[in-house]
């Protein structure tokens, strides 16, 4: 799968790449609902194996309303990444405005149990002007 990852952050040898797309067919603009899908690729460029444990999202809409989402793993998984391995997943976000943004961090564990945070790059959620 060849994707254009528009947003990238590297922390402690783990790369997080994000591609985001507005989904008009899943949005209900007349009801004030806009929907985006985002694809995340995690890359372990470290020399040790790591496991994703938790996620922390800060989702902001164009009115300045902030929704914080914390949880275990990603889409029901806590992937283990050996050196050089990647893990991809897809999820979505619905807003009540046509513009917003997401950012946050993942918490990973090293093989000795030590936890460390990996930044998720800031990325905008922007609907085309004709959907306003």
From TrEMBL:
Pfam families noted in UniProt: DUF525
Q: Which domain of life is it from?
A: Bacteria
InterPro entries named among the record's database cross-references = ApaG_domain, ApaG_sf
Q: Which GO terms describe its biological process?
A: error-free translesion synthesis
Residue ranges annotated for the ApaG domain, each copy included: 8-132
| Residues forming coiled coils | none
NCBIfam families according to UniProt: PRK05461.1 (NF003967)
What is the name listed in the Swiss-Prot or TrEMBL entry for this protein?
A: Co2+/Mg2+ efflux protein ApaG
- Native species of this protein? Alteraurantiacibacter aestuarii
């Amino acid at each position: 799968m060849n994707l254009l990852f528009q947003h990238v952050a590297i922390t402690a040898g783990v790369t997080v790449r994000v591609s985001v797309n507005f989904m008009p067919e899943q949005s209900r603009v007349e009801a004030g609902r806009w929907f985006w899908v985002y694809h995340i690729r995690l890359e372990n460029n470290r020399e040790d194996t790591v496991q994703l444990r938790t996620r922390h999202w800060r989702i902001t809409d164009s009115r300045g309303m902030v929704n914080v989402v914390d949880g275990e793993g990603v889409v029901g998984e806590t992937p283990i990444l050996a050196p050089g391995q990647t893990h991809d997943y897809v999820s979505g976000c619905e807003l009540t405005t046509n513009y917003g943004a997401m950012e946050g961090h993942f918490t990973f564990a090293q093989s000795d149990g030590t936890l460390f945070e990996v930044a998720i790059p800031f990325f905008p959620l922007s609907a085309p002007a004709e959907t306003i």
